[in-house]
Design goal:
- The strands form 3 sheets. A 7-stranded mixed sheet has the order 1-9-8-7-4-2-3. A 3-stranded antiparallel sheet has the order 10-11-12. The protein has a two-stranded antiparallel sheet with strand order 5-6.
- Helix 1 (about 15-30) packs antiparallel against helix 7, helix 2 packs across helix 7 (about 245-260) and helix 3 packs across helix 4.
- It has helices at about 15-30, 45-60, 75-90, 105-115, 210-215, 230-235, 245-260, 265-285, 310-320, 345-364, and strands spanning about 70-75, 95-100, 120-125, 145-150, 150-155, 160, 170-175, 190-195, 205-210, 290, 300-305, 335-340.
- About 35% of the residues lie in helices and about 15% in strands.
Length: about 375
């Protein structure tokens, strides 16, 4: 197996081999047009059809009705952190509430506070961000503009279970690192957003799924490019969109629908991958420490450490010799991190677990 197949990076992450092959061909020339995808006009009929297909595939995968708009935007989740309160935290509502469960939700809360008054519904700092709250037990006031949370914390390796209750206030979720990794009830949310460099494709595009009734809250006077209504009205083509990233995203949605068989099938694969890796780490006993408490372990990002930076670095080097890449932990907490995004295969996880067991026999 090559290093592309054994890419456990936290992002940009691995892409399916079939998507990479189609992308390679498209960079030279799209079969339909004879023109490189890198030079295709965003005003072409081909690109309009591509946007329509990408939206159709997402609706099919998520079971979304026309009550929701889907847009393809730029700026990553970082732009959304500010845009969301600018658009939806209007007068007549109590300040929006934020769950701080790790590095990225802390960033989201900090950015939102720069443009609107916010409240913290829960903060896991006292646990070192090793556990999560029950969202339906936070006691959110019904006049709150919205409740925001990050469904999967890539840095600490924490993941919320899918939300299945009827939310008392609009529920907004940053699903950047676990979007389309499992089946869930998308209609429980007023907004879902996810940048692409985890499960959806290369960096450059962010999917925003927005309940249309939420758009009625948006105040007039926002700069056009910061107003969600602009992007909905222009069909994700207000300014030059990231054509290449949207093309690859569309290939990934085809792969999920027609090769994998939908989100329930993808969920089963991801559950097996995560179970195999966590079982291996648990069997190593005191040799390793997993960051997240057992109940909240992420299926997408497994953060762990040998407890000694020298051993962590040594394992990264040994793994790289076997073609395994992307295991370095996030700079904020160090250690190691294996990301098991959709395109990471079960065979790749077997290679990683074998390398872990061998390393521990020889060095720990």
């Amino acid at each position: 197996m090559n290093s592309n197949t054994l890419n456990f990076s936290g992002g940009p992450g691995a892409l399916p081999d079939t998507v990479l092959e189609q992308t390679r061909q498209a960079i030279a020339a799209l079969p339909e047009t004879g023109i490189s995808v890198l030079g295709m006009s965003h005003r072409s009929e081909w690109f309009r059809a591509l946007l329509d297909e990408a939206e159709h595939n997402l609706r099919a995968l998520l079971g979304l009705s026309d009550d929701y708009a889907i847009t393809f935007m730029q700026g990553g989740s970082s732009l959304q952190f500010a845009m969301i309160p600018m658009n939806f935290a209007g007068k007549g509502f109590a300040p929006p509430e934020y769950v701080i469960s790790g590095y990225w939700s802390k960033r989201a809360t900090s950015e939102a506070a720069k443009v609107w008054e916010t409240r913290v519904a829960w903060d896991g700092a006292d646990s070192g961000y090793r556990r999560l709250p029950a969202l339906d037990r936070l006691g959110i006031d019904h006049s709150t503009a919205f409740l925001h949370y990050v469904s999967n914390e890539t840095v600490e390796g924490l993941q919320f279970p899918a939300y299945e209750e009827k939310a008392p206030v609009p529920l907004i979720a940053d699903m950047s690192s676990d979007f389309l990794s499992a089946s869930f009830q998308a209609d429980r949310y007023s907004m879902i957003y996810a940048h692409a460099q985890k499960n959806l494709g290369p960096s450059g595009v962010t999917v925003a799924v927005i309940k249309r009734s939420l758009l009625d809250r948006i105040p007039d006077g926002l700069p056009a490019i910061l107003d969600f209504r602009t992007h909905v009205a222009h069909g994700s083509n207000y300014n030059t969109p990231p054509v290449f990233a949207i093309y690859v995203l569309t290939l990934v949605t085809r792969w999920l629908r027609f090769d994998i068989g939908g989100l329930q099938a993808m969920q089963s694969i991801n559950e097996r991958k995560a179970r195999r890796l966590y079982e291996t780490l648990d069997e190593l006993g005191d040799a390793v420490t997993i960051h997240a408490d057992r109940q909240w372990r992420s299926q997408m990002n497994v953060a762990f450490t040998f407890g000694d930076p020298r051993l962590d670095d040594a394992f990264v080097s040994v793994a790289r010799e076997q073609g395994i890449v992307g295991l370095e932990g996030h700079r904020s907490i160090g250690g190691l991190r294996a990301s098991l995004y959709n395109a990471v295969t079960e065979q790749a996880v077997e290679v990683l677990t074998g390398a872990l067991a061998e390393f521990c026999r020889e060095r720990v």
